[in-house]
Design goal:
Blueprint (H helix, E strand, L loop, with lengths): L3 E4 L2 H12 L7 H23 L1 H4 L7 E6 L4 E6 L6 H9 L6 H9 L19 H4 E9 L6 E6 L4 E7 L5 E8 L9 H11 L7 E3 L5 E2 L16 H12 L7 E7 L5 E7 L16 E5 L2 E4 L14 E6 L8 H4 L4 H19 L5 H13 L1 H5 L4 H7 L3 E2 L8 H6 L7 E6 L3 H5 L5 H5 L5 E3 L4 H8 L1 E2 L2 E5 L25 H15 L3 E6 L8 E5 L6 H9 L9 E5 L4 H15 L1
Parallel strand pairs: 2-8, 12-14, 16-17, 16-19, 20-22
Antiparallel strand pairs: 1-6, 2-3, 3-7, 4-5, 4-7, 5-6, 8-9, 10-11, 11-14, 12-13, 15-17, 18-19, 21-22
Helix pairs in contact: 1-5, 10-13, 18-20
Bound molecules: adenosine-5'-diphosphate and magnesium ion.
Magnesium ion binds next to helix 2.
Length: about 575
């Protein structure tokens, strides 16, 4: 059979063009990517052998082998993982399916050059082979199939596929190295790269030669004791599992023993993953059972409000043949989730007084706050972890700090919510509070509208919106009073004006009253105490969840020159 010729998808061609011509200095990452793929392929075969043994064929121990042919300048990477069929070769090594990759390619082409080492993060790690090779030959035999296929390309727009001979199941990748990439034929160089990037890979990575040498520690990182993991190893492992490139904010190593046994190596990213708020994001925590990879899609494993976590959980209690479907109803998972959640929250609490915590909060606070209404059991921890910007300015503060700073006589935690801090700070409803020196929490996350009513109070102090209900600032000591009694019109005088407003506005407003919260502005609108707050109403209306909006209460500032003049005029009208 003659070789079939296929064109690369246009986007792949563009990527290859860049990859081949880049002057990128850390070309060694190609090996990290090919080893990661070989390791994934072994994980997938192991899982297949458990769930569909008839398809998996013979099992055995997995390993990744490197070999060099100095004369021919060829580096070979082979695995005995799941392998690829003819169609999978076409699908996986000729097209880019994942969304987001196009953006990566455009970034690479653009002015601000994206970092080529991110290539694995965008699901195109295989193509990194062309950083060092001008010819790549992939021979693969899929588990359970007898025929093997050879894929070959010089990375210039097309590739060929033809039938091949291959005795062992799995994939072999031969890289014909460019002249300037000859150092990747040196055993010490290969060893150095493997130890730098791939030491955490749980199966042996060996260099074939006169005697076979294992280059990595080849034990699952998360099963080692804490003292046996260096920060560098943990970080590389994080990059590998999370497809990330940042430094983790926190590394959490758990070894639970007793009634429920599991170990976990979890990471809180240092940077915000792009898919934090998309529905179909991949779950970042992989589930293993006794070092066998089961799934990276176990939604039960961590609560939604910890979806930024990345890493691995390995259970010794789940049955090895647990299929992804069976996982959904397995009673152990909620137990593991409970333990993990508690542990992660307590680790976060431990670090919450450090300055870096604020960066964590900036990245993930809005997600964590979802737990305030979802997870009653951990509400107290979450309330301790929460940070808020306030009218006092400066760094976000905790609720405890807020309580410490409360004014004598103040009995509530005041809040105001809206889309942006800047516009909130200009709200007339804040004036009276500001004059009294009362701090108000500035809430800008939509989720705030949902957890505040659910939580209602913190340490016996109610949360109270300054845009809802009547303000009663008279009991709070200190500051200048919003108004000085002798300057103010008598209540009988303003009553006439209020009556006139009511008469004129009719059904447009729910009520008109004298305000305690205004010092500068003449009037403002607030929600009545029994109605939903203004921001929530806006949010619900945006999502078509609300048919009718509640009427507002109009408040008048009796100390304002405009209102005074109106009072006088109304008075004259009445007299004549
Ligand atoms: P990613 O690993 O993020 O999916 P890659 O570009 O590294 O992206 O690989 C693309 C796909 O090619 C993989 O998802 C996998 O299906 C397939 N693949 C690559 N290398 C191997 C291998 N050694 N064995 C089996 N499949 C492989
Ligand atoms: Mg890959």
């Amino acid at each position: 059979m003659a070789a079939e010729k296929h064109e690369f998808q246009a986007e792949v061609s563009r990527l290859l063009e860049i990859v081949a011509h880049s002057l990128y200095s850390d070309k060694e990452v190609f090996l990290r990517e090919l080893i990661a793929n070989a390791s994934d392929a072994s994980d997938r075969h192991r899982y297949l052998a458990l769930t569909e043994p008839e398809k998996a064929g013979e099992s055995g121990s997995y390993k990744i082998a490197l070999s060099v042919d100095k004369d021919a300048r060829i580096l070979t990477i082979s695995d005995n993982g799941i392998g690829m069929s003819h169609d999978e070769l076409v699908e996986n090594l000729g097209t880019i399916a994942r969304s987001g990759t196009g953006k990566f390619v455009s970034q690479l082409e653009g002015e601000a050059k994206a970092d080529l080492s991110l290539i694995g993060q965008f699901g195109v790690g295989f193509y990194a082979a062309f950083m060092v090779a001008d010819n790549v030959v992939v021979t693969s035999r899929k588990a359970g199939e007898t025929e093997a296929w050879r894929w070959a390309s010089d990375g210039k727009g097309s590739y060929t596929i033809e039938p091949a001979e291959k005795v062992e199941r799995g994939t072999e990748i031969k890289l014909h190295l460019r002249e300037d990439a000859e150092d990747f034929l040196e055993p010490h160089r290969l060893k150095q790269i493997v130890q730098r990037y791939s030491d955490h890979i749980a199966l042996p990575i060996v260099l074939l030669g006169e005697e076979e040498e294992t280059l990595n520690s080849a034990s699952a990182l998360w099963t080692r004791s804490k003292s046996d993991i260096t920060p560098e190893q943990a970080k590389e492992f994080y990059h590998h599992v999370a497809h990330a490139h940042d430094d983790p904010y926190a590394t959490i190593h758990i070894r639970a023993e007793g009634t429920l046994e599991y170990s976990a190596l979890l990471f809180v990213p240092g940077a915000k993953p792009f898919d934090l708020f998309t529905q179909d994001r991949k779950h970042g925590v992989k589930l293993y059972v006794r070092r066998v990879f089961i799934t990276d899609d176990a939604a039960e494993l961590v609560p939604g409000y910890l979806r930024f976590l990345r890493g691995v959980v390995d259970s010794s209690d789940l049955p090895l043949n647990v299929s992804r479907e069976l996982l959904q109803n397995n009673p152990l998972l909620p137990k593991i989730r409970k333990g993990l959640t508690r542990r992660v929250l307590s680790e976060l609490e431990k670090g919450a007084s450090a300055p870096e915590y604020l960066e964590f909060w900036e990245n993930f606070g809005a997600v964590l706050k979802e737990g305030l209404y979802e997870d009653f059991e951990n509400r107290d921890s979450l309330l301790n972890l929460a940070r808020f910007r306030t009218t006092a300015g400066g760094d976000p503060i905790s609720l405890d700090t807020y309580l410490e700073r409360m004014k004598p006589g103040q009995d509530a935690i005041y809040t105001i919510s809206g889309e942006r801090i800047e516009s909130l700070l200009g709200s007339p409803q804040l004036e009276g509070y500001r004059a009294k020196g009362v701090e108000v929490l500035l809430l800008t996350d939509p989720v705030d509208e949902f957890w505040i009513p659910a939580v209602a109070s913190f340490k016996d102090k109610q949360f109270r919106s300054v845009t809802r209900g009547a303000a009663d600032l008279s009991k709070i000591e200190g500051g200048e009073d919003a108004k000085k009694a002798e300057d103010l019109p008598k209540s009988g005088e303003i009553a006439k004006l209020i009556a006139l407003f009511k008469l004129t506005l009719g059904d447009e407003v729910k009520d008109v009253r004298e305000s305690q919260r205004l010092t500068e502005s003449a009037v403002c609108l607030v929600a009545d105490s029994g109605d939903i707050d203004m921001r929530l109403e806006k949010l619900l209306r945006q999502h078509n969840q609300l048919e009718q909006s509640a009427k507002r209460v109009l408040e008048l500032n009796p100390g304002h020159p405009l209102i005074r003049q109106l009072i006088e005029q109304v008075g004259t009208v009445g007299a004549s």
